[in-house]
Design goal:
Elements (H helix, E strand, L loop, with lengths): L3 H8 L4 E4 L3 E5 L9 E5 L11 H22 L1 E7 L10 E7 L6 H11 L1
Antiparallel strand pairs: 1-2, 2-3, 3-5, 4-5
The structure holds zinc ion.
């Protein structure tokens, strides 16, 4: 199997912000959006249906924790959570902070964030 995300987990451990039993949170190093990170299951999973109930539960907790951290550390007024997984099929969630006062928002911000990553 040739999967970019599975490879990154092995070859780029410095980008990993947090690692839990089922998930990895990876920093994007986005200059445009500090704090923008990606939540990825440890296992190679390509659909929501493939996740176990334990993985789903932990994912929800992690989204809440990441949102709180982005609000506190990066003054995020809003945190977008987006899953596309079209270019890389390994399921992953983009957590994109929109800082207070930022003019760019919604789909425009999401597109800019994801294409700059
Ligand atoms: Zn993978």
């Amino acid at each position: 199997m040739n999967c970019k995300i599975c490879e990154l987990h092995k070859i780029q451990p410095q980008a990993i912000i947090q690692s839990t039993e089922f998930w990895i949170i990876r920093n994007t190093s986005s200059a445009l959006l500090p704090g923008y990170c990606i939540l990825e299951p440890r296992r190679h999973v390509t659909t929501w249906s493939d996740l176990t109930s334990k993985e789903i539960i932990e994912m929800g907790t992690l989204i809440q924790e990441i949102e709180s951290r982005l609000k506190f550390e990066h003054h995020a007024e809003k945190v977008y959570v987006v899953t596309i997984s079209e270019v890389v099929s390994h399921l992953h969630l983009h957590l994109i902070p929109r800082a207070t006062g930022m003019q760019l928002r919604g789909l425009h911000l999401i597109e800019k964030a994801i294409t700059s990553n």
